[in-house]
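Researcher: Here's a chain I'd like modeled. Treat it as a single chain, no partners, no ligands.
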Amino acid sequence: MIGYTTLGTNDLERALTFYDAALAPLGGRRTLRYQRSTYYGSPTRGAMLGVTLPFDGEAASVGNGVMVALAAASPAEVDQVHAAAIAAGATCEGPPGQRMDNFYGAYFRDLDGNKLCVFQMG
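Model: Modeled as a single isolated chain. Structure tokens:
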């Protein structure tokens, strides 16, 4: 149902370096590039994640209650994404672990403070 979502950044090149590393374990790669934004996708997953300089010219800021969740194929992949994000400079918001019977997830904030979750259900 979701085609893409975007996260704001104040430094696009720094954000792209971060997301190149953090999304690699998911097979995420740059799929579309524009002057103010870049979108990541995967050959096996339909939705894209965009990183963008705000179009209104104002500073990017974190939305209260906003979180992007990235689907992983396995708990091991969740662990890999979380580790890659932390190694690339993310802040841990919850280490990988079983949250509910059918939900294994981890949480982190990117270099601009945007909150992300990587999870596997089932």
